[in-house]
Every structure is written in C-alpha cells, then in structure tokens.
Amino acid sequence: MFEHLIQGFLTAMSPMVFLYLVLGVVGGVIIGALPGLTATMGVAILLPFTFGMEATTGLIMLVGIYIGAIYGGSISAILLNTPGTPASAATCFDGYALVKRGMATKALSTSTIASVVGGLISCIALITISPILAKFALKFSAPEYFALALFGLTIIASISSDNFLKGIISGVIGLLVATVGMDSITSYPRFIFDRIELLNGFSVIPVLIGLFALSEAFNQIENLFDEKSIDTSKIKIDKNYLSLKELKKIFPTMLKSGIIGTFIGSIPGAGADIAAFVCYNEAKRSSKTPEEYGKGSLEGISAPEAGNNGVTGGALVPLLTLGVPGDAVAAVLLGALIMQGLTPGPLLFEQNPEIVYGLFSSMILGNIILLVVGLFGIRFFSKIVEIPKAILIPSIIVLSTVGSFSMNNSMFDVGITFFFGVLGYILSKLKVPNSPIVLAIILGPMIEENFRKSILMYEGSLSFLYTRPITIVFLILTLISIISVFRKDKKKIN
C-alpha cells in the first residue's frame, strides 16, 4: 500500500497533474462561493472536459473541484449569510454573526483551517479503510452485488428527501430511464423507439449535466431580473486571523467533527449538509459555552466546516470499494469513472492501483492547496460573490451544451441534456429530489443484471436470498432503511 501511495504522490506532483489539481481546487472554491451553484453542479459541468485527459489527471481535477466547492460554500455563508452550497447552511449561524462584529477574517480563517482538518481526517480514513473493505468485497458474487445495490438505492432515495413518497417517485423515474437500451442478458432492445442512439441506453453524462447543471440554471433564471446587486462595502477584511491560542481551544471540536463527518459521508445518501448540521448540534451539545452558539462562536464555525469537508473522503469509500456512491457528487464521479472505462469496486484496487492511490494522494495535496488558497485568498473572497448572475447563468448553459455535445459529437446528447434539464426543473418545483434519478440510472442495471445472474446461478431458485450471509445482511439493512423512513414519515404526519 505504501509503495502505491508514494507512486500516487509522485503522479499527483507531476507538473501538469498538479496544475490541474490547483485549477480544480481554485475553480471549486469559486463555484462553491457563488450562491446557487453547488459542488455537484461544478463537477457535472466540467466532467465532459476531462474526457480527453488521461484518466488519473481528469479524476484528480474533479476531486479538486469537489474539495474546493464544499469549502467555498462557507465564504458566502459567512460574508452574506447566504450559504453557497447546502452543506454550508449551518455555517451561517455563527459566521455572519462574526462578520457583523467586524471579524470577517477570523471567521474565514477558522472556516479554512477547519475545512482542511476535516478533509485530511477523511483522507486518512479513506486510505486506511478502503483497501481493507475492497479485500472484503472481493468475496462478493452476483447475489451480494444485487443486495448491495438494492440497499444503496433504498437508503439514497429515502434520505434525499423529507418526503419518502417523493424520494420513491424520483427513484422510480430513474429505474424507468435505466430500462432503455439493450437487455444486459439477452441483448434485446427495449424502449428505443427505433433510435439507434438509445441502443446503449441514455448516456450518463448528459443526464447528469441536465439534472444538476441546467435545471439549476433554469431555476436561477427566474430570479435573474429581480436580483439585487450584492453590497460588500460593509464587509471589513482585517488582518486578525485565527490565533494559535484560539486554534488550540477549538481543535478538539475540529477533530471530533471531522471524524463524525467522515463516518456520515461513508453512509450512502447522507451527504455533507446532513453532516454539517449533525456536527453543529453535537458541538453545541457538548460545549461548555453553548450560549455563545449563534452569536459568533468559533466552535460554531469549525464544527460544521470540519464535518462537511469530512464527507469528501468518506463519500469515496463506498464509491471506490463497492461501486455505490456516498452522495450526489460521488454519483457524478462514478459517471466519470465509467466514462474513463473503469469499473468502481474491489477490482479497481487490483487492476488500476495507480488511479486509486493517485486519487488518495491528490486529496491530501488538494487539502494542503486549499489551506494556502483559503488563507491567502481571504482578501479576494468578497469580490467572488459580486459576480452577477446575468453573466454566470448564460455561461453555465453554454458550458453544459458544449460539454454534452463534446462527448460523442452528437446533437442527440444535447437534446438529452435539455430534456433532463427541463425534467429536473419541473421536479424541483414539485420539491422532488433529482439525486435518486441518477443513482437509480446507475444502480438500476446493477440490480437487474445481478438478480438475473443470481437466478441463473441457482437454476431458477430464490434461495440465494436467504442462504448467503452477506446477502442476508444487506437485505436486512435494506428493510431497516425502509422501515425507519416510514416511521419518520408517520411521526411527521402525527
């Protein structure tokens, strides 16, 4: 493992790869800092542009965007009381309170350091846990993969929405989309309507761009003409960074939140926004001065930021080892791996260790780059949030169109992007989450193919459902996931 890790560092430190990593982190910070743009959108928009790159280089740049964007959301949360990404909503509580007291630099430097600490903790967990889990996953056969994919689908669909029914509707839409194309066992064409382009089903990348980038752009267009210019003149960027004494005081909170965030990130579907609020509440619960929370507490900034950045590494654990994405961004990264002809899962560690450990190394370097960019870029952050949406939104639409076309030089893919962009926009108005659609498109074929393989293995018998221990465990977890959501929904109704 250490040999592969050293080789991964050498790869990540090569001039061109390092340059793309820096560009990814800086670009991610800018995307995250702009209210309305998310880490998922940023990775989805730039995904097609990595197609011509070497696999490791392209994936490293996308991971850099992921790291930068999750942190970047705290910039507008602190300066404007408007979270740049959902993951930074909890940072508003104490971040903006410090800005009103004229301590913007202290708030931003606290956020930067906490984000890096949380990110590095998640990297350590990713490097140590993933190879062990991958070795365990090598014992998986078709029945285990069927049960795993089923579990991943149910937990993601349920956690992605406050309404269980809407989560299910979104997942069903994704499963229906996944049935288009040739049957994986018999190669019989299904629902292609005489379109040769659909023989291989819907391309994942245009679907991702449409659902996560275009749909959000359409949402932002509604407020385009009502948008008021952002006044940053009252924001005072001083030189009072977080002191060493203050860092020592809040460092235990950072460590605890980073560990909690990593754990939550490794649960498929939980996401950075959930991790941030869980860490904030836990920090407040265990604090000796809970009355300071909401009034400008440094712990109140460090807890959610260490937690949501802990998710960045945690979410990649199930993705790389089991092929099940931990959150929406990991789902887009799954699409990136597939686009590069790679199959996420235990075999990835055996067949392509240079890519896996290149990613591990780049995440450590990416967090170090984030520390430098975050601390030295504080004076420029107020300028980022001033970029008008009248420039931003048309740029997103153009990039989405060019990106979807460049995959196969096909206008059909552009049509798919706009179709799913409109679909995502309509679903957002109905408050139906779009993440389960993509995850169902990815996991649906995995469920179907492995279920049918299992039936063939057992000559038509369903005994594999109750005779294989690992399969039984995942099926029990699936039932627990569904029952817990039903109970949660029932409590809300009562």
State the main characteristics.
22 helices, two-stranded antiparallel sheet, mainly alpha, 494 residues, globular
**Principal-axis shape:** globular
| Helix/strand order, N-terminal first | HHHHHHHHEEHHHHHHHHHHHHHH
- What is the beta-strand fraction? under 5%
Number of self-contained structural domains: 1
What is the structural class?
A: mainly alpha
* End-to-end distance: 52 Å
**Uncertain stretches of 5 or more adjacent residues:** none
Summarize model confidence as the mean pLDDT.
83
Radius of gyration: 22 Å
Total DSSP helices: 22
Main sheet?
2 strands, antiparallel
Which percent bin holds the helix content?
Answer: over 70%
Strands ordered across the widest β-sheet: 1-2
Strand tally: 2
Written overview of the protein:
The protein is mainly alpha-helical and 494 residues long. Helix content is 73%, strand content 1%. Strands 1-2 form a two-stranded antiparallel ribbon. β1 and β2 form a beta hairpin. The longest helix is centred in the N-terminal third of the chain and has 34 residues, at 104-137. The protein starts with a helix and ends with a helix. The model has no long low-confidence stretch (mean pLDDT 83).
